[in-house]
Design brief:
It contains 15 helices and no strands. With 391 residues, it is mainly α. The two termini are 34 Å apart.
Length: 391
């Protein structure tokens, strides 16, 4: 990557967008808790609108290839900004659900566009994607810490409007990104349904979904029930915000220091190790209220998920062509949606039924089961024909 790439407005805009993203991860569950909602209600608020994200994600990925990632990134900023404005005025579940729908629409369009653009940058792909992941996680660090501090100082409404202003800045920075033409010119575009039908015939894409689930699960927990766990263990909202930034610090470490360890973009070692580490970290955070132990577990949590995310992007890039990269990222990203929908709902029911600590133990066991199953999935799916044109 050239020196100039480090100052590319794409990276700066992505950094600022993720400041608002990090703020939302703290704001949403704690605001719902502040309004007196139950665990099931909080889980439903986070998860149910995400069902729409499955559709948004597939459409967003397809239109990245057709309209260009820059245009999709700009639209994501506006959608996210509107979501924060709606949150600031809402006190009912219906209002919060509408705002959350705008949140998930913004996420569903931002990530396929960002990953698609990042995978097409010149130079070493591992390094470019590692830098992109480190940049976005740096933004989440700032946003998570800022959200926790602002809640304590000024309350929730100020936080939501601060996030909206941050997204306006991301939009303005995005305007500086060089215009990128659609990857699929109008004369050569295939239908959206036929594009996804072709990707569905690639066995390796289903292993990509498992890796997508693995890479996003730490964020899903961090933006739903991790803040509630930490507050319940006696930490202030400010301390909770700072502790949760360690997940992003871990992901930055993965992007800067560990990206080169992905020697094979379709190998098994990286997702297997990441799955095991994430399962241990989830259980460890619930075992103790010791600050050092919790901090270390969240850092490991973030490092493993960050490396899993880089692996996911490299894996999908290896399976796809530049002309359908956005669609492939979205198709493999159905694993993200599986986590975003199922995890908060499951955690909400478990919290009300067996307690939040036991719910975290359950999720750790679930990830351990995935660790055991990954070698069989890899042999079954990745050993088959993997490239979308190899049929």
């Amino acid at each position: 990557m050239s020196k100039a790439t480090y100052f590319n407005p794409f990276f700066v805009s992505a950094l600022v967008w993720n400041i608002a993203h990090g703020m939302g991860g703290v704001l949403v569950p704690l605001y719902a808790l502040h309004l007196g909602m139950s665990g099931v209600a909080i889980g439903s608020l986070v998860a149910l609108p995400t069902i729409l994200q499955v559709l948004f994600n597939l459409l967003g990925g397809a239109y990245v290839d057709r309209l260009g990632p820059r245009n999709i990134l700009l639209g994501s900023c506006l959608q996210f900004m509107l979501g924060n404005a709606v949150y600031s005025y809402s006190t009912s579940f219906a209002g919060l659900a509408l705002a959350q729908c705008l949140y998930v629409l913004a996420r569903a369009t931002f990530w396929p566009a960002a990953y698609s653009l990042g995978s097409r940058l010149g130079g070493d792909r591992n390094r470019n994607l590692g830098w992109l992941n480190s940049t976005t996680n740096a933004g989440q660090i700032g946003g998570t810490a800022l959200g926790g501090i602002l809640i304590g100082l000024f309350g929730f409404q100020v936080c939501f409007w601060t996030a909206a202003g941050t997204l306006l800045a991301a939009f303005l920075l995005g305007l500086l990104i060089s215009r990128t033409p659609s990857v699929q010119p109008a004369s050569g575009q295939t239908g959206i349904v036929s594009t996804y039908a072709r990707l569905a015939r690639v066995p390796g894409m289903y292993f990509a979904m498992a890796c997508g689930y693995l890479s996003i699960l730490p964020f899903t927990l961090s933006s739903s029930f991790y803040p509630i766990l930490l507050v319940g263990e006696g930490f202030s909202t400010q301390a909770t915000g700072w502790l949760l930034t360690l997940r992003a610090f871990g992901s930055i470490f993965a992007g800067i220091g560990l990206a080169k360890t992905v020697q094979s973009p379709t190998g098994l070692a990286v997702p297997l190790r990441c799955s095991l580490l994430i399962s241990i970290a989830i259980a460890t955070a619930a075992m103790s209220d010791n600050l050092g132990i919790i901090a270390l577990s969240i850092f490991v949590f973030g490092a493993a998920s960050g490396l899993a995310s880089i692996y996911f992007q490299l894996f999908v890039s290896a399976l796809s062509n530049a002309s359908d990269r956005g669609s492939a990222m979205s198709f493999g990203g159905l694993g993200w949606q599986a986590s975003n929908v199922s995890t908060p709902l499951l955690m909400g029911f478990l919290m009300d039924g067996i307690g939040l600590q036991n719910a975290f133990y359950f999720m750790g066991a679930l990830l351990l089961l995935l660790t055991v199953l990954l070698p069989a999935l890899h042999r079954w799916l990745v050993a088959s024909r993997t490239h979308p044109d190899s049929r």
